[in-house]
Structure formats: structure tokens, C-alpha cells
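User: These chains co-purify. Model them together.
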Amino acid sequence: MLSRRVLSVLALALFVFPALAVAQSTGTIRGRVTDAGTGLPLEGVQVSVEGTRVGAQTAPDGTYTIVGVPAGPRFVSVRRVGYAPQRLAVTVSEGAAATQDLALGRVATQLNEVVVTALGQTAQQRSLGTAQQTVQGSTIAETQRENFVNALQGRIAGVEVTSSSGIPGASSSITIRGISSISSSNQPLMIIDGLPMDNRTMNTAVLASDNNSTQAFSNRGVDFTNRASDLNPEDIETLTVLKGPEAAALYGIDAASGAIVITTKRGKAGGGLQYSNSFRLEKTGAKHSCKRVYGPTVSTTAAGLTSFSYFGVPYAPGTVFYDNVDGFFRTGSAQTHNLSFSGATTDGRINYRLASSSDKTVGVVPSTDYSRINLTGASQAQVTSWLNSDVSMAYTYDNNDQVYKGDIGPLIGLLLWPQNDNAKDYLTAAGTRRLLTTLGAGTEQDNPYFNIAKNKINAKTNRILANVGLTFTPMSWGNLKTNIGVDNYTNTNLILRNPDSQVGNAFNGMLELADVLTRNINVQTLLNFNSHQLSKSLSISGLVGNAISDYRTNADALKGQDFLDPNFVSINNTNQRTSKTTLEQRRLIGAFAQAQLDFKDYLYITGTGRNDWTSTIPKGANSFFYPGVNSSFIFSDAFPGVRRFMTGKLRAGYAAVGKDARPYAYRPSLQYKTTSNGGYGYDFWGPNLALKPEFKKSFEYGTELGFLNDRLGVDATVYRSTTTDQIVNDIRGSYATGFVLFNLNGASTRNTGLELTVRGTPVLRNAFSWDFQMNFDRARGKVLSLPHALPESYVSDTWLYGNVRNGTEPGLSTMSLTGMYYLRNKAGDILIDPSNGLPLRSSIFIDRGYDRQPNYTIGLTNTFKRNRLSLDFLLDFRRGGDVFDATDHYLTTHGLAMSTLNRNTPLVIPGVLKDGKENSATPTVNNIVIVPAVQTAYYTNMSEELFIQKNVNWVRLRDIQLSYALPEGFLGTRNASAFVKGTDLFLKTNYRGLDPIVNGNTAAVGGSGGTGIDFGNFPMPRGFNFGFRIGL
Amino acid sequence: MKKLLAAILVASVSVSYACSDYLDVNTNPNAPQSVTANLYLPPMLHWMVTSPQYDGRFVGHYTQEWYSTNTASITPELTWGRMGYDPGSDNGAMQWRDVYWSLGQNLIDMNTKAQAEQRWDLLGVGLLLKAWGWQVLTDLHGEIIVKEAIDQSRTSFDYDTQDYAYQEISRLLDSAIVLLQKTDGAVNQAYLAKGDHIYNGDRTKWLKVAYGMRAMMLNHYSNKAAYNPVAVIADVDRSFASNADDPLLTYPNANPFDDYNFWGRSRNNITLYRQTQFIVNLMNGTQFGGVVDPRMSRMLSPAPDGLTYNGVDPNLTGFGALGTAQQPNNFFGYVGTGGLGLPGRYLFDDKAKIPLMTYSQLQFIKAEAALKMGDQATALTAYKNGISSHIDFVNARNLDNNQSPTQITATEKANFLASPAIVPATLTLSHIMSQKYIAQWAWGHNELWMDMRRYHYTDVDPVSGTEIFRGFSPPTNLYGDNGGKLVQRIRPRYNSEYVWNAAGLDAIGGLAADYHTKPIWITLP
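Assistant: Joint model of the two components:
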């Protein structure tokens, strides 16, 4: 319906416009563009003839040719991202070729740099009134991370990337400027070539097992890739992060948490064949130290072990121990091959780029791997003098094998397994699981070797991203640009719980299949108005636009239980099957406009406005408008006296952005019940017909300063945003309402922060240069209120270990942790149970000031170049922020942690007795002596509070790379280089667990999620890469 | 040209306005928002029978039906097993969930539709469900939310007294009895049968349930001056005539998990639970003059030798002093955690039917009422009916899925009923209540606990001088918060009330650490 209308509009345009083309006398402009600093040719420079629609890009040798230039005096404008633009006068004669060579200045001043902005436009840095930051695609590709999201940490101030684990294909979440939404996604919108790209992580809610509380994963224990990782990092030309809602106002609802704008590569004349590869070896670093002192708790009555608790007698001298942990991990490996062809016709009217990539990663944990194949084709053509077309198609196939994590994962199994038993010997003679205890297969922790061999989590994805763009330029004052994009993928999942395994035994095996079919269509039309001179010193430019989105996901899930043949993995081998379909559809319409006033190229005022219509908010409230205004003032140009010392810009911006609800959030629906004899009953969610959009209002102020001929630059931003009427999903209420959960407006949160980027080039000589960039980020998020004055809100999936969860309350950080912490008196002393000398715990979830939000983070990049050799590295610092080491708590309660070694030492827990005098002036100080070895409740009932490590700091070497450019013509190549590189080589932290970068859930969980909850998670391995790159 | 361009622009922008229905995609395609009245019924009937079993895991620790031997976890053994509770947990509040949510708005929608369509039979069942909900909730929790319940515009709720809850139950049952007698309007057995898989739409059977529920409710007043045993007996007599009237829920085992019997091995809920010495002693002759109950070998589990019947001691953890050879098998009849996919016993099978209430149970209620009014003859007949019909009930349950135990023969039954230790010349309360305990063991937890609380757990029969629940002794090491008192109620559901309705709880004293030991109104004089 919709797309037919749009197509007919486009068809109309195609038929009508040719009639407008009038024959003109034309000539040619050609020339060569070089780097003013080095004199080397510059490729990819956009050369266009003002007032016409013709233009070209330079080839790798720097040459360009523009044909069909209308004769007469013309201005040529020359732009390349990272350089200052230039404008030159050329006179074109009919049938003749004018030559125009030029040199582009590199860092005349960063203010003049051309950058990508919202909606795929480019602008000069000086005109921007809001903060944004760009990373070159080559930088991202060089990090050699298969999921490009992981390359961003530390490279952009204000961007926080959390990978769920070090397993290949693990999901990574990305947040910009902290957590503002308590329960919904805080991830930014991903934009590829102007249109949104789906970056969802599959939610386990679509699985058929999720309807059953004893089978549901609830986004724990399993993980799935975030879909942005389907993108081939080699295809990225530039990546720009729009941090605040100011710039993102133009992208609408989904960009309320910022936007990541990716431009993919296009062909250039003479591009030729480029090949690169990378080979990688991975080792896992940190290891939990496993204790070999005390043996398992032995029951006095039962024969054999009754648990994997270690409160028994010490192991006898001479006990044979097995190194179960060491033999478990393997050396991971990866290899990547990238091949691309690109080129353009000599007249520059048509260019193309074809690329393919293959990536295969074998993880350090056996049975984990991730492989991906990318095929990309892109072509631009100048169809007529007034019509440009741009087509890109990207196909991705990926195949990912993961293992369980958390308490059902192999890491906990490894740590728990008795050290005097050889875990590698995991099968009985009959080929079934070898059990050690009398607990039975459904209760005994899985042997880790059995777990990875017999359980299975596999996901395969086939994805096509197609984007067709047409630009009409029938007039000199502007152009009309339309993009239609389809993002279509099929994600096929298989999750096996082996009949013999702990997770599968109760069901005699369970196989789950889930096919997720996502089809997103986006249409965007922009009418750009070129700069128009209002007076001698004032000009105006702008755009109006319209965007239509249709998002649709259909998940077909099937669950089979009760295996006939325990080893044959097929749904046909199961006796009981349950199916479930989940269809989700959401539609959005947006209309927006932007106008920019430019006063003498030093004062810019930009106003934006957008109205959205969404399908997920009740009619009447589902249309909402939000404005934005920002300003940029180049004071060093306004006051030329200043320019002798520095260049400088001040900017200020305000914007609002609305946000809608998830689909089907406001009206309750019935659920087919699987209890006896079927029937219908309400689902958990109650009605909220008054649901309305939430609003985020944001202010930011910043400055960009350049010193010493821009060899030293500073970019500082402070911001403050407030979200009101925030929609909190799945918030609980009294069951007396008739329901369990509601989706309510009424929370408000405030985010404030400071971002500081300092860049510099301390050394710049012909043979040697040194560049650095430091990104400092401090973000704070605070909950101001909750709907209906409810005391606490939490995302239930994060209640994944013990009694700690990501609960937050008014006045607390958006990244707080609530728990059943120790009871204390007014003075803060722990209350002790007078009957046994052990501390008393709260029976409700309370706050004790825990906050996972770091005080600040710093990313520091340094690049050294000497002749053909270059060395760069990224150091990542973090200060503060709490991490819950649930793994350590688990080991302690099982008598395995080092801290349980002194269990025979009598002790008195510091605190006061809860004898009625605890809050008096003279509380009874606890003097009850306990011996932990006897009163094992000392360990087993220990509050998780003691394992939330406060103020976790780290320094880590994210990337270090040494590369060498081989001489031109080496072995007949046009260019060649080789590199060696290390990733995550070095971590220094006060965190006592394995790695403080953790997520106990997956990136699918909303709000602050399970970030900073470390339970049975494998950390990022250390990687060593080498490879080369050649062009033919 | 500008005009043309403007036209195109308008055309493309107007797409948003032209398709006014474009945004109408927010009707959930995965589930309906309303269905015919009878389709709401099956899940509610399921929960009416099954939900008490969920809470029975914990109530069964209070009543010493069973104890968990899972020493890896302190709950339920060291919490519920010591007459405490699990702080911060929703354990013991399944009925809270099901009355407010599984019934909740569904029941209101069903009743509204039934009333509009003059489906008096369905509406009668609906009111009976409503009464059942308040009955089990107030009996478990004391004060509950009745007047303000099922209101989505509220964020806090006031609690009503138990007195009020009982009045409301009475009112609802009276209305249900009127409605279930009606044959006019759109009363239609076939329509009701579509949602009613207990009686296949037979309203006369539901009418008997309503009388039975009223009898049970009235009998709870036994400690009060308002107690009216004549009314209790009259309602029992209008209720079930035999086991054939018992409302039994079948578990079709079609959907793995949810429609399996909660006590079946597949559900794995009580694999580590074991019978207590208390129930063993009621059946092995210890408490009844050496007469071994023929039901023992069909209901309880022997030690691995298949002959010895032992139970766990509530004051010891795990199996206590029992060696491996003495430890009772699991309720399915197997050693350790065995029995998956194998036949179970009694109610402990994937397909065993579970009753809402039974003829046998009502006969014991009649016996108690008759005894209280001094009518020995009526009491004795009802008492014998109670035991006899429960023996039949045990046999029937062991055939639901062709489980292994042999049937109790007519001779065994006759011999048992002929023993003076079981059926004495002069019946006492301790006979009635202890035998009622056996008949309700493992399924009738709500009523069983109400019985024990009415007799303060350890009351002594004034006539015989024996304990009313023969041989019952509460745990010696009571839960810390109890302050030495025995449990009288379960706290309202944690994640419904303690977290979100604390003010409402505070008004009834529900925030006190020993709130669960505060006696409920109905048991007070």
C-alpha cells in the first residue's frame, strides 16, 4: 500500500523530469588533487561544479574528470572528509577540457573539516551547534574485531560499549551519554547510508520455553549476537556518533538515545583490487584460583556425594589432583579475508564497488565459534544531468555457536568440579553422563566438558540490506533525495538441552528452534535547499523531509521435549512439541524540517522540528512535535585578533525528542493458556489506555578550541537532559489490580555529563609524526521519580543471581543495584542475630548506595609514524563504578573461594545484636564467637552485598598495532602493507574477579540491564593478529 | 518547475495523511482481546484445583504432611518446616496470584458476559469461583483485599476484615445456589461443557459443589458462638451423594508441564520431599491401636526394602537419623530421585486426578458437626462413610494412570472398618479429625491447615483426652521471627504487597516480623 504509493511518486518523477532536460553546450574539467602537506595524491575527493548537478570523485592517483559541464565561468567546489573544502573558479569552453589541479590543506583548522551529519548530509564542522565525533572506517577495520561495535570503546567520548562476554558472537550493548531509560532500550539508532539498520539482540521471550517459568531463559544463561555485527567492518567509510537528541532530533523517536551514522564505501576511479587478511590467535588470560584444601561435604547418612559444597575434611595428603581448568581452554584463532574491486568510468558518471569478506573465529572456549560471510555491491550513477542514483546491497551470512553462561554454563561447572576428579572423563562406559553425586542428573551441576560437548546453542543469520537512493537536481537551488531501504533477515536459532544434562534432564531433553524473520522498510525523502544569500553577510539553507517506517518481526518458535534417542538432535525425535509465534509490527511516520542561518561564516543558528506519528501509542496521543535549536559561534573568526593565538568555537543547543512505547503496550490481551484443557486468560499486562509518549529535553554547551596552528585541539561538552513521562515497561503493582505488570508513564530521569576530547600532534616532521587523542567521559544518570510513587523499579531479567538486581529508586543512579542487604542500625552497624551470631539480612530489596556507573572513563589513542612504519595503540581507563562479583559469592557459598580457607579460625562478626537495644545509645556489641567451618551458614547465607566491589578501576590496552607500508611496486602491487596487532593484551584492575567488563544478561535487556553483574562469564580473550593488505 | 517539485513533495509527504489507517497496526495479532464467555473457564478451573497444590508444598510443612530433604537449600525445610516463611519470596502465595490474576479480570469478564447472555449456569459457576477465591485467600492470609480488588486505576489497596470476607463468600454462594438451580435463560449444558471439563457442563453437579463449599465455610465457625452445625449438616446432605460427585481435575498431559499433575514426577516439584513420621504414625498403627491402615501401602512410600514405612523427623535436617536403608522412597515409589517416566502412586503421578473437594471430606465435616451437637449416630455414619469413601478414592487414584500399587480389597476395607480402634463405639473428635487428616493428606492442604488451626494444632479431645491430631508435635526450633509462636497465617504475596502496597499492609499490622503468627479471626472465639 505504502510502498506502491511511494513508487508511483518516484515513477512519476522519472517520467516527468527528462522533459525538463534541455540540450546545452558543455565542456570538461579535469585535474589532480593532492595533499597540501605531503604532496601525495588524494583519492575520494568530491569535486562538484556549483550550480550544476555534475561532479566526480578522485581516483587513487588523485585525478578526476567531470564531463558535461555547462560552458561558461563556473565554480568548482572540492570537499573531502577530514580536509578543508576549497572553491575555485574555472572557465569551461564548449567541447574543450579545462584543467584544474589543486592541493587540499590538511589541518588548516579542524573547524573547516567536512564532516558527515544527520540524514547523510555533509557539513563543515564550524556550522555544527552540537557535539558529534567521527571515526574513520579504516580505524574500525584495523581493530580486527568481528563485531565493529566493540571497536568503539574509548574512541568516542560519551560512548560506552559493554560486551556480554568473550565468547565469539556475544552481544554488545552500546550506550551514549549514560542510561536514561529505566526499562527500555538505551541503545542508539544505527543508520547505514541514511536509513536505519536493525541492531536487535534476540530476546528469549520469543522462545516457546519462555512461557514456562521453570524453562524460561529470561535473557540469562544464553546469548545471541547483536545484529549490527552483521555489518562488514571493511565496508565502513566513516562512522559518526551523534550524541545528543539535538542532532538526532531529525532521526526521530528511535534516536532518542543518540545515533550512529555509518557511511559505507563507494567505488572510485582506478580503485582496482584490494585484498587484506588477518590471522589471529587468542588466549584467555585471568583464571580463578581453585582451592585444593578442603574436600567436599560428605553426608553422614547417604552413600556418595550429596552436593558440590566443600565444607568437608581436608583432602588427604597425596590426593591426586587434576587440572580441570587448564586443559579446558584452547588457543582460539581467527582468520579474515577481505577482497574488494572498485572503480569508476573514466567520465566519473558511474562507479561501483564489489566486496566480499569471510571471517571465521574459533573461540578459546571449546565449541564456540563465529563465522561470517559478507557480500556487498554498491554503485552510483549519474543517470542524467539531473538524476543521480545510488544502490547498495549487502548480504550477510553468519553462523554462531555459543555455550551457556551463568550457573548453567561451563565456567561455574569448571570451578565447582571436584579437583580430585578428572572432569575430562565425562562419560560412563555406556556413553552416558558420568554423575558424581546422588543428586541426580537434573540437580547435579553439569560437568563442563560434558556441557560443551552435549549442549548446543547455534544461530544462523541470512540478511540482506538493500538501499536505493535517487537524487533529483532539476534546479540549482536544491535537490530532492529519496531513499528506500529494506533490511531483511532470517535468524535461525537452535538451543539444545541434552536429556542427560542438568538443564535438560527434567524434560528428558529439550530442543528449541526459533526462526526470527525481520523485515524493516524505510522510506525517506528530503528536499534540500542550498545556501541562499539573504544579504551580503547572511545566508540561509535548509531542508524539509519525510520518513516512513514499517517494522515487522515474526518469530516462529518450536519446542520439543522428551527425546526418544538421547543423541539425535531433531525436533522429530521429541515426543512433546509446543509451538509459539510472536508477531510484532510497528509503524512510524515522521515529517521534519531544518533551517540554518549563516552570518558571515562565523555565526550559525540552526532550528529543527519534527513531528512523529506512531502506531504504538493510543490514537489522539500518538502525534507529537518536538523542536530543537542550536547555535555555533566561531569567535576566533568574529574577533580576528584572537585568531593569532587560537581558533575557537562556542556552541549551545537545546532539543526535545519524543519516544513511543513498544507495540501492544497499552491494551491487555488474552493468552492461550497451556494449563489443563486450554482456554483463554489475560496475560500479565494490565491496560493503560492513557499511555502517552515520553519526552526527553536536552541542553548542551560546548567549545572547540585549536591552538598552535591546530596542532593541539580541545573539544569540551557539558550536557543535561531530562526525561519526563518516561514509559516504564513491566512495572509491577499490587496483584489486586487484577494484573501483574503495567506499562506506565510517569518516571523521570536526569542525565548530566561532561565530555572532553583533547587531540594533539606533538611531533610533525617529514619522517616522524606523533598524534594523540584523549576522550574523557563522565556521565551521571539519576532517577527523579517513578510512576504512581512506586518505591522501586527493576528489570526482572537482571535478578539473575541471589537477591541482587538492577533495581532503582527515586534519588538513585539509573545504574544502581538493590538487594537483600544486611540490616543495619541507625549508626550503620550490621545487626547480628543474638541466637547464632550471624548477621541479619533485609527481607526486602533495599538500597545501600551501590552504583555501577563509573566516575569517569578515558580512552587514549596514540599514533606514531616514522617513514613507513606506524604504531598506534588505544588505552582505556576507568575510575569508579561498582561490579557485583557473583561468581565469587557462588564460590564462597560452596566453600571454594580463597576467603573460606580460614574457616577454622573463630571469629566475631563486627556488629551489634538485634536485641531491642540496637538503635539505642548503647547497643550491645556482638561478642558471639562463631567458627565458620561449623556454622557454614556463615558462608552459605552471606549477603551478596559483600561481593559488590566498590570503585572498580582499570587500565586496559585495548588495541596496539604496528604496521609497515611496503614500497610501491613491491611484487608488482600498487600498495602493500603488513601489520601485527594485539587486542586486550593488558588489563590492570583492582577488580578481584576475572574481568569487570561484564553483562549478566544479553544486550536485549532494557534499562541498565545486567551490566556489571559478573556471574559465570568468560572474559574477553587476549588476541594477537597479523596480516597484510595489498592493492593490485 | 517549482510547482512540479512542490507537487511531488506534497504527494510524498501526503502519504502520511492519505493512509489514515496506516498506523492501525497496534492490535496484538498474537492474542485476542476478548473471547466467548465459556473459553475463560478452563484455566480458572485448572487453577482452582491446582493452585492449592502449589502452596501445599509449603503449607504441607506446617501441617507435617511432608518435609523437604533438600539440605542444599534452607527453604522450605528450615523456613516453612519451622513454621516460618521465605523472606522476599512469593513462595506460599500462588493462590494469591491465581485469585487476583488468573481469576481476577477474567472472572469479571466471564461473569459480565454470562449475565448479559443469561447463561445462569455459567454465571453460577462464576460466582462459585469467586467465592472459592475469597475463601482460600482469607483462610490462608486472614485479612485480604475484597472491596477494592480488581481495579486497574488504583495503586494502593485497603484490606478488608476476614469477617467481611466470610460475609461476601456467603453472599456469593447463596447467589450461586440460586443461579445453578435455574433452567431458564440461555442455560445450556453443551455450551458450559466447552469450558467445563470437570462436570462436562452439568450444572446440578456444580450446585452440589456450591452446597459443599457452603458447608465447609459454615463449619469453619466451629470456635464461634454463631456456629450452626444443623446448617452445616443440611448443606452436606444437599451436596455430594458419593465419590461419583467428586469434582476431579484431569491432567491431559498434552502440554508438557502446565497440564501435568503438579505432584507428578515430570513436574519434579516434590522429588526431594518425604513423608513425615507424623503421617506414618497415623497409618502404621502407632496412633490407632496397632491397626495398620490398608491405605498406607497405597499412599505412602516404603523404604527401599518395600516393607518398612518410615518418615522424616521435622526437628532434624534431611533424613535425620535415618540410614540409607531406612530412608523412605520418594512419593513416586522410587529410591532417590528415580521414577522419571515411570508410574507413580496415589496422587503422585503425571496423570492422577486431583479433587477440589471430596465426598469423603464432606462426610468428615458432617461427622464433626454432628458430634458437636451430640448426635453420635449421625456422626458415626458420616465418619464411616468418610473412611470408606476415601479408601475407594485411593483405589480410584491408583487407577487414573494404571499406577502400580495393588487395589485395596473389599476384605481389607471391611476388616479395617471393623476394628474398634478405627471405628469405636463412642466416636471422638480425635478419631474424626485424625482420619480426616488422612483423607485430606497430600491434596486438601487448605482445609487441613484450617482444621489444625481451629484446634490450635495440639488441642486435646476433652472426651478421650487424646490429642485431636494424634501424635502431632510442632517443631521445637521455631523460625526466628515467630517469637516462639506457632504459625497462623501466610503473609500476603511478597511481590504484590510487601513491595507495592506496604501502606495497605501496615494498616493491618502486616509489616510486623511475627505477622504470620497472628491468629486469624475465624479461629477465634
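Chain A touches chain B through 104 residues (CB under 8 Å).
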